[in-house]
Fold this sequence. Notes:
Blueprint: H1 3-15, H2 31-38, H3 46-57, H4 67-70, H5 74-77, E1 87-88, E2 95-96, H6 98-109, H7 120-131, H8 147-158, H9 168-172, E3 179-180, E4 183-184, E5 195-197, E6 202-204, H10 206-216, H11 227-239, E7 249-251
Parallel strand pairs: 5-7
Antiparallel strand pairs: 1-2, 3-4, 5-6
Helix pairs in contact: 3-7, 6-7, 8-11
Amino acid sequence: MTQGAVALALAAFAAVPALSEIKSGTEFLSPDMRRQQADETRNPAFFWVEQGRELFSRKPTPDGQACVSCHADPQQSLRGAATHYPQVDAATAKLLNLEGRIEQCRVERQGQPAFGYESPELLAMTAYLGSLSRGLPVEVKTDGAARPYYEAGKAFFERRQGQLNLSCQQCHDGLVGQKLRGDTVSHGAGTGYPAYRLEWNDVGSLHRRLRACSLGVRATQFDYGSPEYLALELYLAGRAKGLPVETPGMRR
Length: 252
């Protein structure tokens, strides 16, 4: 390795923060956006939370069972549930995020067709269930059965991709705090998703944001719920361990 290559490698290593130094996206918002995110009457994403609460209590068919039939008093029984996702499903050994678990319940327990990724119904349900864990620390498992998925997500994060030959790490570790198109580059923690983004004028999932990043570096955009993005979601959640869930967040 040449002297220059060694210097670059050392610089890249120095740019990698300790996990305890990872900050949530809220830390990079303007003071006004922080106040707006915290205020349920000013954060537009709470419309989705309300829709999710209504869906949770509604029977899918006249003779069907509503979610609340199994999960009574969700403010208590599901408080903290979102902090554990993504997680490995014990029955299938597959990695599921919160969206995947909702869809699994809908298909297998309620006998209904899946809502579909990024549908208004799934965004609303995910925003509602995520909001029940607001303020609680992320506690995903990254060892045991989850370890291979976590390592795959880490490899994705560090791998250079696309025509711009950039990795997630180069921006979300090496350029944190710097400006990009008027926004401030953050550590890329997904603790606020589903989130209302000003550029979307809408609520969207973390995978929608990941697809936008892939497009930004002109790399392959994987499908919503793809193994690649699920693994990356777990890695990001692992980096965010201990940070509070902020769903529904607001982002530029």
